[in-house]
Amino acid sequence: MNRADLVVAGGGAAGMMAAIAAARLGASVTVVERNPKVGRKLYITGKGRCNVTNHCPPERVLAAVPRNGKFLYSVLERTPPAWVEEFFEALGVPLKVERGNRVFPVSDKSADIIDALFFELRRLKVPIVNDRVSGICLREGAVCGVEIGEGLGVLTGIPCRAVIMATGGLSYPATGSTGDGYRISEELGHTLVAPKPSLVPLESTDGFCARMQGLALKNVVLTVKNQKKKTVYQEQGELLFTHFGLSGPLVLSASAHMRSFEREQYTCCIDLKPALDESALDARLVREFSSGANKDMDNLLGTLAPRLLVPVLLERAAIPGDKKAHDLTKQERRRLLELFKCFTVAVSGPRPIAEAIITSGGVKVSEVDPRTMMSKKVPGLFFAGELLDVDAYTGGFNLQIAWATGRAAGEGAAEYVRRV
């Protein structure tokens, strides 16, 4: 292997940005990526459209980071969302802003973002080695190279003066995020905050979820409360019932606010009719039940709720499906009203970390320089992206963190190799 000034371990969003930033400053950079192609996880972000960033000021990004936001202050001031937008526009990718200030390529294709980064790496003559970084070599406590290979007894190395670890977390292991970076970081003396899933579907022991598998509810309001009845999340949007519980955009966003599953119990309350307050909804129910007085309730409710939801509503309200609407009592109507305004689902926990979009946890940020992303323990070792113990809510904020920390690590590493 040829010698490089620095090696970037991982060819995802943070890794490619780090490599580009360092190469633009004149550093000799090599990217080591275990997948045949770089940016594999980017292909699935934003449902394949790539939510590049959020069109907002840096302080809004910080507000979307539930833990260790202060650590990102410097890098977000230097690399705010506006810089990221200008960066991709300059690489020939037109962008657009959608609901919630989410930024996407005009083409709605993640591939355009990946191609822009790849061709910029090629323009800068950055080689990409298709292999796995299995270890980091030190000399007198400082980085002097990396080992690559699958640990089958035939390891090769790349001599270098700096390494940027951008190997990702544990989510979506099929994209290459297998936790190697955690192992290597710990071996080099770093503290690891236990990785947990974030932006992840939720499991429930409520059997009715499986009965409604595949049912998508749009324009509902999801409220999540902890065991003290405190609201930890509330938003309007779309969710999905699955065989294990709940998924969909609302649920993924909510999960990022549910950060204490080991000591908290959470309940989801779904407002099925958010456009109507209780009195307006009750008046609607009275009208429907009066006009269809001779209809069975299981048929009549089909005008008010999706067909898969009807038998569950009736069962939870203790109303026989063949009961005529004119026989409905005020108490039964009240129970239906309450279910429409707060259909509860008990949450038993998150799905496995492999199904999460983002990993929460990682390398302890107090052990990393917040300006350059260099380790405070190992000279020449830098971190970027999801490997760090920072994560954010949905809306392009996690990719914004990847771009900002990647750029900081790349520029920090380029400056470091100039000095040593």
What's the quick description here?
This protein has 13 helices and 20 strands.
Give structural notes:
The chain is an alpha+beta fold and 420 residues long. It is built from 13 helices and 20 strands. It has helices spanning 13-24, 58-63, 73-78, 81-90, 110-123, 180-187, 208-211, 249-255, 278-291, 297-300, 310-316, 330-341, 397-419, and strands spanning 6-9, 29-33, 53-54, 95-98, 102-105, 128-130, 133-139, 142-148, 156-159, 162-165, 192-198, 202-203, 216-225, 231-241, 245-247, 266-271, 343-347, 349-350, 358-363, 381-383. The strands form five sheets. A seven-stranded antiparallel sheet has the order 17-16-13-14-15-12-18. Strands 6-2-1-10-20 form a five-stranded parallel sheet, with helices on one face. Helix 1 packs parallel to helix 13. The longest helix is centred in the C-terminal third of the chain and has 23 residues, at 397-419.
Whole-Å distance between the termini?
Answer: 21 Å
Question: What would you call the structural class?
Answer: alpha+beta
How many beta-strand runs? 20
| Largest sheet: spatial strand order | 17-16-13-14-15-12-18
What integer is the average pLDDT? 93
Shape: elongated
